[in-house]
Amino acid sequence: MPRYKTSQKLAGILFSLSAALANICTAQSTVHGKVYNSKKEPAANASVLLLQARDSSLIKGMVCDNSGMYRFNNIKNGSYLITTDILGYKHAYSSIFIVDGKQGDITVENLMLTEDFKQLNGVTVAMKKPLLEPMIDRLVINVASSITAAGNTALEVLERSPGIVVDRQNNTIAMNGKDGVVVMINGKKNYMPITALVQMLNGISANDIEKIELITTPPASFDAEGNAGYINIVMKQNNNFGTNGTASATLGYGRGWISEATMNINHRKGKINIYGDLSYSRIKQPLIINSWSDISNKDVITETDFETNRTDTTINLNGRLGLDWQASKKTIAGILLTGFQRLYTQSEHNISKISTNGLLDTTIHHDNNELNNMYNYGINLNLQHNFSATNTLLLNADYIDYYQNQPVNYKSSYYTNQDKFIYDRIFKSGKITPMYFSVFAADYSGKMMKKVTIEAGAKQTVSAFDNNVSFENFIQNNWTKNDSLSARYKLKEDYTAAYASFNISLNSTTQIKAGVRYEHTNSNLGTESKKNIVDRHYGNFFPSFFIMHKLTEKSTVDLSYSRRITRPTFNNLAPFTYYLNANTLLTGNPALQASLSNNFKADYTYKQYLISLAYSREKNAITAFQPHTDSVNNKLILSAENLISQKTFSVIIAVPVTITKWWNVQVSTTGLWQQTNALYQGRRISIEQTNVSINANLRFTLPKNFFAEITGQYVSGGLYGLDRVKPAGSVDVGIKKKLPKKLGSLNLTGTNIFNTNVIRLSTNLPEQNLVSNLELHFFVPSVRLTYSLNFGNHELKQKRERLTGDEDERGRVQNN
């Protein structure tokens, strides 16, 4: 198998990179000084940067303490200067000084800040964030620092992130081996079903993304939903004076044309700030699916071989428009409008070959087409009041509307094993799904004592769901409704949440954060003919605990615990029917129960190096589209199921390596052990698996403003419910050219260049009559050319930090 050999070679290369760590020697000199304002008072909280004298590149940065003091430890030999600034004052610069390792303690002359900010061109700070940035409660992926991300989508960037697995067939996202991920955009959850969310992420350009945050143990202020944790996608924001923005355009090809365009604009003047962004994309590409299943019924074994010839076309339009008004020095009011529309069409010609006891019996030609039109829009009203510098109240009100229309037409032509026509079977399915959400939230944060701060809040969420599923057969020139596969499901749900969390600074090296959240849920699902299919009322407490201890100036260790819940998603509760082929269909499961998990995590960081250990035990874990065999009708039925339990242990090691000043390497390795315990047809099944995934990023700084990047990913295999996932990998390359005179930049990227990123799943449980293989080619090798431009005024202003009331909610419907 050539692709397996390629994957093995790729794994060998990435393992070699992971082992190629360089020794970094640093001298032990300390640089310190003080900053004063124009009144000769200590400039508390002034930003201080330590720069290389030769090119003004950033070495370290910090904020002055209350006495205006700053201190940089363990500075290696070289020539340096200090720059400092604070809002409303000019930059100030020190003289150039030398560190030769002999002085030990170097005192820089006092720096004086003067009022009336003016743009200075004397020093240019050349600063580039690392690709991976570990923090106390999350791992940050700085997408804007990646060349190969240009022209790609948010989903493609996620797929290459450490510990993230995206299942495009079932439209799910897993983190560190666990489903139940909650996705936020700019701190706001998206209420769209996960099927729609995955598709929306595939329509958001990576050019608009600043960073992605992987939060595995969220604190009490976050919603308890999501056993795997949170993924927060932070879009680029512009907080400058005047009118300014960014724009980009992408043209590419991957067995079909790819076109994208994005724009971000910001206008800030006086007390008003208006901002917004708009993105458009159109992607056309083939989708190759090959599957095989074996179903036994007494002495008869039926095999189904299935292959597709399918073309997908997807058009995405995504936008935001917001306004902030500074009502007073302490109060800000805002409104934010969001909208997304996706139009997806596909046409396919598939072939199924049905064999009985090893002999070809029937060949079926499928000519199908699908239209999937979805949109959502939302409005957020918010008010932020600062009682003091340390006490803030935030109020939010949100309304979100979501709508999906998904008609699918099927035509199956049956032929004998001698290729003689028998008959046609024509049928169609429909799915119309409107959803509505209202969210009201209040959050307070303030300082109780010198070393203790509190966060507290409450939230009320009301939602309604209407899922109209229809299925019709074309019989004797008439459409006949199949009542057994058609129904209109309605769900009403509301839940109330309250939380309190305390941050305690025990001393200068140890911090503790502890909190508890309570959520009470009322949920009712029924049809017009059958009421109360689901009628649940339950409440739960969700404690969380974090402790961080600073071992040295460069190293920290932190421990955390949290209890989480994953509720059944709306579409999984309300059944639908989608035929993959004549003998394989997808459907929902109203019997799904909520799952609860206990999660433990420990991290050790040294500079930018990270070792992270995590363990979780999840009861009633929900896994999507698990196989069930209908041996009488020779059908393979896929639906979401509750497992008995799932145990997961993971290790993440992230290592940055500076080989030379122009060549940097970032390697992250994730090791995973997982045990799945399930009940199938009255029998208990236990499956264990271990796997390793490696992500490597090589970045090169070349002459004449050229930059290059190579990224590689290898996954040794995995477990998805009862399915085993086989190894896969990919390599992406990119080159970037900064154009002169602020004309922007050009990026040329190639993704999956060796065509090795193929999804392969298999189930081999003959005693349970579950034997199947599935191969999906979602990732077509492609090339993209992207042009990016910054325009307008770039005089910085301090940005407003705020979240909206629904940032803890949108994942509930996303996980569909």
Structural description of this entry:
- This protein is mostly beta strands and 816 residues long.
- It has two domains: 26-112, Immunoglobulins (Immunoglobulin-like, Sandwich), CATH 2.60.40; 132-814, Maltoporin, Chain A.
- The protein is 5% helix and 64% strand.
- The strands form six sheets. It has a 29-stranded antiparallel sheet that branches. The protein has a six-stranded mixed sheet with strand order 10-11-16-17-14-15. Strands 2, 3, 5, 6 and 7 form a five-stranded antiparallel sheet that branches.
- A hairpin with a 4-residue loop joins strand 32 (534-550) and strand 33 (555-566).
- It is globular and about 95 Å long.
- It starts with a helix and ends with a helix.
- Mean pLDDT is 80; it is low at 1-27, 117-127 and 795-816.
Supply database-style keywords.
single chain; 816 residues; Immunoglobulin-like; Maltoporin, Chain A; six-stranded mixed β-sheet; 5 helices; 5% helix; disordered N terminus; disordered C terminus
| Strand coverage percent | over 45%
The CATH architecture name of the largest domain reads Beta Barrel
Largest sheet: 29 strands, antiparallel
Overall body shape:
globular
User: Total number of helical segments?
Assistant: 5
* The CATH topology of the largest domain: Maltoporin, Chain A
Enumerate the spans where pLDDT stays under 50 for 5 or more consecutive residues. 1-27, 117-127, 795-816
Mean pLDDT comes to: 80
Total E-strand runs: 50
Derived structural class: mainly beta
Estimate nothing, just give the exact number of structural domains.
2
The CATH C-level name of the largest domain is Mainly Beta
Measured as a percent range, the helix fraction is under 10%
